[in-house]
């Protein structure tokens, strides 16, 4: 293994170190804005001393607040949802000159009530949804994450290629061990100069992100084909929401009696916990976009939910789809956009209709669930207003019928603006995904399987460290399905879905071509494949009892998860890995504190057996 760096990043077990570091970089705690690197000019130095003093006062205040508090387990409802923050600052400088952007994040448990029901939730810097990461292509991103929760966590940067920095991918049990309570981990990586568009970050340990640890990433670039074709940027974050902490729901979901306690008499085994509500920009009601008339707005739609596909629309406004998962598209006009978990779309909306307030609709596609919640209000509404004072809209929904349910936007509508044909494949990887009843725990436990493997996070022995220690490895624990390629290979990943539901699958560290998808099993030589500028994405939905064929190149060294992004399903085992160029993994300079933090997991022994047991709050 390569020599370990001497940096103290991420090694502290006391927040003081974080603050010292923050001060030395001119960052004040609780300042959630990105910080560019301070210069040596006197002006900056002065600001920076003041900043340090403010931070010191903040630290003392925080210490007093925590140490001499009233013994309340959670803070009161103090998370932030500021609607104006969902409109991006038009003065952000879009440039191809890279800089370093620093963020200081504190992850903790607070009480909140996004849908009116108060519950404990997990948040970054007291914000929900979490802080915006706004960068230019090629920038270096440094995020120091301090874990103030009582359980471990990791943060994953969804859609980031992490070329050469796989160990910053933030995937529990694969590229990292959970950051232990009271410790921090500094994520430091370069945004790929060729990447731009709409992304997000989220916790990647068990189902933890379901409880609120997520936020947007916007990458600007003058090279983006749609750059300059719109006037303003706005975020539209969609998510489903539960009234209980996910760990309790997960435990019940994976128990032999299932989510209803009886597995529906065996009638509906494996039914996922249905959400209690849906949110637009962190609110069930009252989310507002106050816009200016006669401008072209780029709405960046991100589904940060756990289970739900949404159908998004704005009354009386045609949406021009121009981006899917960071890939610019030939614009296509639609009334509604289906968006599954972890996917992103940008749509251009022109505020050129009669001045007024209009309904924003995010309709939860409850029909895709195995189990419905009779109390769920499926139609989540927000208000878009321009040219007048906001009022409750009385606009009506589009009258045309919904597109096919539970599937992605038709691939004929996802045409990359920069055409790229895939190279010929050199390897077929055939995978089946299914849910099966197992008798592991003496009863009928329903788990997810990729081929014959139901994944479980190796939270103290992530696969990246296994490779870093031993080089090319081909034998793994029974809970790990790993496809190893130590040469650059063009992989056709062919997956058949033996489950009746559709599933949004995400491949870490890659943009793949979608060659084909359809009903039934893939038939070699018969199922049609598209090789001329096929859609490129990082997350696609495999149809129920259907198949997909995606192609990608194993030229990015590291351990890359390929998994269903429905939180419950990943935790139930629907995850496999690609180990690309493992000889290069051995050369990675992995921060020494990663090993240190791994050795702290439950005394350093393998956790095994479904990671919810130790991620559980008070369990
Ligand atoms: Cu799934």
TrEMBL record:
Q: Which InterPro entries match?
A: Cu-oxidase-like_N, Cu-oxidase_2nd, Cu-oxidase_C, Cu-oxidase_fam, Cu_oxidase_CS, Cu_oxidase_Cu_BS, Cupredoxin
Record's keyword terms, sorted: Copper, Disulfide bond, Glycoprotein, Membrane, Metal-binding, Oxidoreductase, Transmembrane, Transmembrane helix
GO MF terms held by the record: copper ion binding; oxidoreductase activity
The record lists the membrane-crossing segments as 47-72
Which residue intervals define the domain Plastocyanin-like in the entry?
Answer: 107-223, 234-367, 473-582
Q: Which SUPFAM superfamilies match?
A: Cupredoxins (SSF49503)
Composition-biased stretches (Polar residues):
27-38
Keyword Transmembrane belongs to the record: yes
Which portions of the sequence form the region Disordered? Answer: 1-38
Compositional bias (Basic and acidic residues): 11-24
Q: Which family does it belong to?
A: Belongs to the multicopper oxidase family.
Question: What PANTHER family does the annotation carry?
Answer: ADR239WP, MULTI-COPPER OXIDASE
User: What's the name of the protein?
Assistant: Multicopper oxidase
Whose protein is this, by species? Answer: Hydnomerulius pinastri MD-312
């Amino acid at each position: 293994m390569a020599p370990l760096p001497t940096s103290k990043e991420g090694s502290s077990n006391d927040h003081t170190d974080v603050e010292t570091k923050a001060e030395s970089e001119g960052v004040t705690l609780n300042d959630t804005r990105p910080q560019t690197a301070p210069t040596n000019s006197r002006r900056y130095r002065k600001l920076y001393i003041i900043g340090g003093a403010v931070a010191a006062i903040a630290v003392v205040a925080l210490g007093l607040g925590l140490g001499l508090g009233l013994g309340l387990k959670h803070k009161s409802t103090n998370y932030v949802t500021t609607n104006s923050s969902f409109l991006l600052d038009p003065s952000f400088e879009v440039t191809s000159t890279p800089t370093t952007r620093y963020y200081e994040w504190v992850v903790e448990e607070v009480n909140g009530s996004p849908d009116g029901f108060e519950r404990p939730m997990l948040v970054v810097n007291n914000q929900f949804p979490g802080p915006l990461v706004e960068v230019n292509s090629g920038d270096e991103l440094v995020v120091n994450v301090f874990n103030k929760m009582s359980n471990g966590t990791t943060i994953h940067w969804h859609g980031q290629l992490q070329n050469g920095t796989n160990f910053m991918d933030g995937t529990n049990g694969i590229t990292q061990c959970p950051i232990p309570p009271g410790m921090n981990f500094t994520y430091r990586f370069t945004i790929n100069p060729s990447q731009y568009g709409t992304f997000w970050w989220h916790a990647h340990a068990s189902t933890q992100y379901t409880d609120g640890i997520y936020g947007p990433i916007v990458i600007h670039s003058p090279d983006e084909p749609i750059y300059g074709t719109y006037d303003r940027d706005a975020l539209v974050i969609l998510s489903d929401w539960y009234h209980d902490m996910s760990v309790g729901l997960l435990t019940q979901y994976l128990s032999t009696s299932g989510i209803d306690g009886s597995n529906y008499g065996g009638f509906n085994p494996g039914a996922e916990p249905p959400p209690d509500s849906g949110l637009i920009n962190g609110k069930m009601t009252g989310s507002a976009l106050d816009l200016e008339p006669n401008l072209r707005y780029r709405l960046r739609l991100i589904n940060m939910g756990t289970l739900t596909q949404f159908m998004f629309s704005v009354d009386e406004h045609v949406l021009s789809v121009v981006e899917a998962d960071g890939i610019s598209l030939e614009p296509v006009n639609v009334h509604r956009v289906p968006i599954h978990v972890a996917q992103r779309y940008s749509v251009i909306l022109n505020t050129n209709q009669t001045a007024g307030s209009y309904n924003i609709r995010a309709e939860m596609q409850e029909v895709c669930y195995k189990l419905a919640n009779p109390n769920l209000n499926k139609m989540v509404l927000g208000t878009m207003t321009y040219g007048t004072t906001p009022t409750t809209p009385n606009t009506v929904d589009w009258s045309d019928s919904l597109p096919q349910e539970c599937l992605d936007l038709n691939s004929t509508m996802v045409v990359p603006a920069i055409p790229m044909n895939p190279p010929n494949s050199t390897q077929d990887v055939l995978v089946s995904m299914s849910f099966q009843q197992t008798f592991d725990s003496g009863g009928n436990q329903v788990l997810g399987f990729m081929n014959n493997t139901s994944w479980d996070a190796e939270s103290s022995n992530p696969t990246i460290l296994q490779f870093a220690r031993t080089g090319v490895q081909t034998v793994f624990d029974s809970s790990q399905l790993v496809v190893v390629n130590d040469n650059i290979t063009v992989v056709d990943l062919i997956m058949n879905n033996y489950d009746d539901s559709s599933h949004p699958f995400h491949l870490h560290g890659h943009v793949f071509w979608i060659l084909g998808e359809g009903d039934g099993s893939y038939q070699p030589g018969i199922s049609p494949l598209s090789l001329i500028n096929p859609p490129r994405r990082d997350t696609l939905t495999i149809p129920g009892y259907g198949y997909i064929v995606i192609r990608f190149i194993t030229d990015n060294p590291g351990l890359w998860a390929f998994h269903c992004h429905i939180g419950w399903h990943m935790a139930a085992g629907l995850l496999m890995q690609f180990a690309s160029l493992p000889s290069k993994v051995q050369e990675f300079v992995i921060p020494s504190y990663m090993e240190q933090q791994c050795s702290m997991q439950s005394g350093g022994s393998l956790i095994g057996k479904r990671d919810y047991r130790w991620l559980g709050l008070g369990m």
